Amino acid sequence: MQNLKGSNTKILLISFLIFLGFSVITVRFAYIQLIGKEGYVDKVVERFPKASVVRLSTPRGSIKDRRGNDLAISVPTVSVFASPHLVQNKEELVRRLSALPDVREKDIIDKLNSDKKFVWLVRHVDKIYMPYLRAVIRDTGNDRVVGLQEEYKRLYPHGSLASNLIGFVGIDGEGLEGLEYMLNKDLKGKEIKGFFYLGRLAVSPLSEDMISKDVQLTIDLGVQTILEDIRDKIVKQWSPDRVGILLMDTKTGDILGVANYPTFDPNQYQTIPASHRRNFVATDLFEPGSVMKPFFIGQALQKGYIKPGIWIDTEGGKTEVFGRYVKDVKPSGKLTLEQVLIKSSNVGTIKVARFLSKKDVEELMEKIHMTDRFNILPGEVKPKLPNFNYPANILYASIGQGIASNLVNLCVSFNALATNRIVKPRVFLDEAIQVLGENIFSPSTFKWLQNNLIKVVEEGTAQRARSEYFTIAGKTGTSQKFDFRIGRYSREDLVTYFVGYFPVNNPQFIAGIMVDGPRGPDPYGGTVAAPYFKELVERVAFYYRLEPDKLSK
């Protein structure tokens, strides 16, 4: 009986050990198949002296404008690979491959002298050279160790158009800057592996789930072309350091066009300095100058501290602000509140701003969303506000000094003056429309601001923005850059603006033009930016077939 029990125990123990061993093998097999397959295969292949695993990528998703026009696409090309230590007739191979465009002999020689089992000799060659490359491989006797593989190269069919926004892709298909970088996970092609052995590269076939999705932007290619043409005219006339132009839809927040200078061709990004590739409209802060005046005057009206039509003594165009003097470009005596805005009086605006408390100004900045970024563009920076605990900062901020914003935030804030709403800007067409604030000003204050921003264009500092066809409302701005060497604002180093909206009877668009460092006589917002705002309005309005509102009058 005892022997029987002992036998059963042994059988159970042996069965358990067999089961345990089988389980370990099963788990290991499952791990290799489901989890560690790629790493396991890599380790096995690398043990073979003439074999290697090569990583390739499927086509990257396209970037399109709102009408479906291609802004960035992936096109098929051909690349040349080799086993360097097995290549014959190296000099002849190098000589003939270097006949291809943009291919240097030295680069090929360096790769052939590599101790790697697999190298790319030439990448992303136009497929029209396929017969030539096959002949070169055959003629040099390298059929078994040199081969051809189809790859995809990023192409920007419109060259520099919207390049500072779109960015570019590196040779391995990785987004390096702009939206290409920001959307890299969505646009990037799926990685596939090839098995390289004795000059042959075997690649697994593509499947449906390996195809990347396209992205559609709010940008309108027609509008973008208009903005960049205007930018080029500004550069030709004023030779500035930088230019930024932005056009937005007031109702949806859609960014329809964004132009920058300097700019670059993303098809040749390797030769361009990084400073030319920045999207200044979003990445750089500038003091907005007089563009801020309607907001501060509007807040004082909103609070009931002042009334329309009041007279303000501008003291002959000069006033003291905590030990420093602020001047008007054109000195005046007494001005009505309306004239303060229309003539863009620094002294008059500061006297209005004296009524505002810290709480009033912080409430204003919050309402017009001048407190944060929108996180819609790569490198986007948030506005920089001074400490409003100090009364001097409130006064200087009212004339756009000590406060800094990018052009995106400035144009979004201006929607409060155009439609009495703040709408989050969009750059992707499938993103939900988001209204961030409504009824920023009371109806009476809003109407007062609109009437007088029209007068800024019709009879004030922005008369050069006046159109014969469309009623435009807006505000000029000229900000002096602070010179830290002399401890005060420079009189020569300026940034000029015009920000406005149109058509006034039913505002559909907000636009801003920023010109940094214009060179020429009278480099102010009314002379540099305003004339080109008029051209922008007329060209964009006719592009969208808007009916001129002035002709009916």
Quick take:
With 553 residues, this protein is α+β, with helices and mostly antiparallel strands.
Spatial shape? elongated
Overall number of structural domains: 2
Q: Helical stretch count? A: 19
CATH topology of the largest domain: Beta-lactamase
Structural class: alpha+beta
On the 0 to 100 scale, the average pLDDT is 88
Q: How big a fraction of the residues is strand? A: 15-25%
Output the CATH homologous superfamily of the largest domain: DD-peptidase/beta-lactamase superfamily
Named CATH architecture of the largest domain: 3-Layer(aba) Sandwich
CATH class of the largest domain: Alpha Beta
Number of distinct beta strands = 21
Helix content: 25-40%
General description of the model:
The chain is α+β, with helices and mostly antiparallel strands. The protein has two domains: 53-216, Penicillin-binding protein 2a (Domain 2) (Alpha-Beta Complex), CATH 3.90.1310.10; 221-264 and 278-543, DD-peptidase/beta-lactamase superfamily (Beta-lactamase), CATH 3.40.710.10. The protein has helices at residues 2-35, 37-46, 90-97, 105-112, 130-139, 163-166, 178-182, 184-187, 221-238, 280-283, 293-302, 337-342, 346-353, 358-367, 391-398, 407-418, 443-458, 525-528, 530-543, and strands at residues 51-57, 63-64, 70-82, 119-125, 146-155, 168-169, 175-177, 191-197, 200-203, 215-216, 242-249, 255-261, 311-313, 318-321, 324-327, 334-336, 421-423, 435-438, 473-483, 488-502, 509-516. The strands form seven sheets. Strands 2, 3, 4, 5 and 10 form a five-stranded mixed beta sheet that branches. It has a five-stranded antiparallel beta sheet with strand order 12-11-21-20-19, with helices on both faces. A hairpin with a 6-residue loop joins strand 20 (488-502) and strand 21 (509-516). Helix 3 (90-97) runs antiparallel to helix 4. The protein starts with a helix and ends in a 10-residue tail after the last helix. Residues 21-38, 40-45 and 47-51 have low confidence and may be disordered.
